[in-house]
Amino acid sequence: MEKRPECFQTGVQEVATVFLVCAAQFLCQGGITMCMSTMKVLIDSFAEQSGNIEESEKVWFMGSFALTVGTFILISGRLGDLFGLKKIFLIGWAWITVWSIVIGLSYYSKSIIFFIICRAFQGIGFALLLPCGLGILGSVYANGQRKNIAFSCLGAAGPSGAAVGAIMAAVFAQFVWWPWQFWVQGIATFVFGVASYYAIPPDPQKSFRSFSSSHWVKRLDVLGSGLGIASLILFNFVWNHGPVAGWISPYVLVLLILSVLGAFAFFYVELKVAEYPLLPRSLFNRKIGLVLLCVSLGWGSFGIWQYYYWNTVLILRGYSPIEAGLTYIPFLVLGVIASLSISVIITRVRPSIIIAFSMIAFMCGSIMLSIMPVKQSYFQIAMGQMFILTWGMDWSFPASSLILSDFLPVYHQGMAGSLVNTVVNYSVSLFLGIATTIETQVKSQGSTVLQSYRAALHFAIGTAGLGVVFALVFVIIQHLDNDKSGTFASASDTPTIESKRSL
User: Which residue intervals define the domain Major facilitator superfamily (MFS) profile in the entry (predicted)?
Assistant: First the structure.
């Protein structure tokens, strides 16, 4: 193994840095499952205070959080590249601390809408953390075994956080009081923020403090960023809220049209107007495009699986929050094994093959949930799908992160983190909105709850299946290019002078 990077004065500092970056991913995934294992408690709590709560509003418990994480990541990577990855990383911890406290206090508002809005604002903090954390690891580690191990630990943090978050939230909701799950989260993020200030080494890239404010505006691509974020939020909102309000509602149609127009305007600005485009054109090629497309389809199907899994065990099977949370333990154990194994496998196997196996795992997980009987022991299909899905999550995320990090230069490491996390989190929210639309339509035709769930899961199967197809195309391309490494850098793929100018 290569020597420790010079920016780390001691081995303890290196371990602490990797741990703190992993903690961001751990808490982000835990932030999603916290509201999944306790969604019945949350609905009952607000319904008791303010009257009936629309059952369909629970999709926003996960959707609002994933939406802001996925959209604001689009610009947070650029902020990190411009102003310093460590600085934005610290701001992210502070932001989450504040909004975690506010979410707990939302109980007194007696409004589930306010709770959902607070969850969305909390997601912005994780949008600041995740790409900058990936950027920190990508900038301090050269390509090699140490970098592979660091990114594998990052991959293990996701499923581990999902399991611990679900169980921890269930314990507080069932035995204490549900706001405490968010207050404890706020305390943890405050501690991690202080630790990050002392442990993480200074930013290695050049400071841009000498630039004027107008130059910062250009480099941030404010117009393109605004159009991109607005169109993504509106499009996602329409797909998640359409089943609730009805697709013939005038404002739903107007927002859908505005989101599409905003997307066209975004691409026009990026291609024709922006001096420093948010997503530099020269950084994209067919391989990067295939990786991101596969990640989108795979994680989109997983978002659907996750939502309907919790609905199945809590509503159809009648599990308590703690019982439901405990069913996620296989993710905690197997996630570590799968993620650590990828650091060795990725040096011997083409990344395209790893991505392909991940897509197959995502598809199999959705198939198993779609055929799982309501009255069946957990230790049969329910537990079996955990063993398979673990490999999908823990191989796809670190593999795709390593692929982009190896390809992009140091000054674009924040962007590498942005691309992967944007695709993962936005896809989770977007595809879930489409799935709930299918569920609503099937249920409106007189089908049972179970039948409507399975219809949504059939969409998840198709989504993951399409990911398998594109992954196989990726395998063929890498085979034809004789590319066996974890990086795609080649004569045609190497970032050009123009790409360096883009930042």
Answer: 17-481
- If DSSP states are collapsed to H, E and C, what string results for 72-88? HHHHHHHHHHHHCHHHH
| pLDDT confidence of residue 498 | 33
Quote the CA–CA distance of 166 and 327 in Å, as a whole number: 9
Q: Which of 42, 175, 167, 162 is nearest to 112 (CA)?
A: 42
pLDDT at 206: 54
228 SS3 class = helix
CB 403 within 8 A of CB 351: yes
Q: Phi/psi of residue 61, each to 5°? A: -60, -40
Return the pLDDT at 414: 56
- pLDDT tens digit string along 246-286? 777 888 889 999 999 998 998 888 888 878 787 766 566 77
| C-alpha span between 497 and 502 (Å, rounded) | 9
In sign, the C-alpha dihedral spanning 384, 389, 390, 392 is positive
* pLDDT tens per residue, range 472-503: 998 888 777 766 544 434 333 333 323 332 33
* Complete DSSP assignment for 392-453: HHHHHHHHHHHHHHHHS-GGGHHHHHHHHHHHHHHHHHHHHHHHHHHHHHHHHTT--HHHHH
Rg (CA), the chain: 22
Is the Cβ–Cβ distance between 92 and 24 less than 8 Å? yes
For 56, residues 6+ apart whose C-beta sits below 8 A from its C-beta are 243, 244, 436, 440
Phi/psi of residue 110, each to 5°? 60, 20
For residue 99, give both structure tokens.
Answer: 């909004």
Count CB-CB contacts under 10 A for residue 323.
16
- For residue 244, the number of C-alpha atoms closer than 13 Å in the C-beta half-sphere is 15
Answer whether 0.90 is exceeded by the pTM.
no
**Model confidence at 78: pLDDT above 90:** no
Residue 44 vs residues 19, 36, 79: alpha-carbon distances, Å: 37, 14, 40
CA distance from start to end of the chain: 33
CATH T-level assignment (fold) for domain 11-221+274-501: Growth Hormone; Chain: A; (1.20.1250)
Q: C-alpha distances in angstroms, 165 versus 46, 56, 108, 153, 428?
A: 21, 23, 23, 18, 18
Q: Are 421 and 401 in contact (CB under 8 A)?
A: no
The DSSP 8-state label assigned to residue 247 in this structure reads T
Phi and psi torsions of 448, nearest 5°: -75, 170
Q: Which residue ranges make up each domain of the chain?
A: 11-221+274-501, 222-273
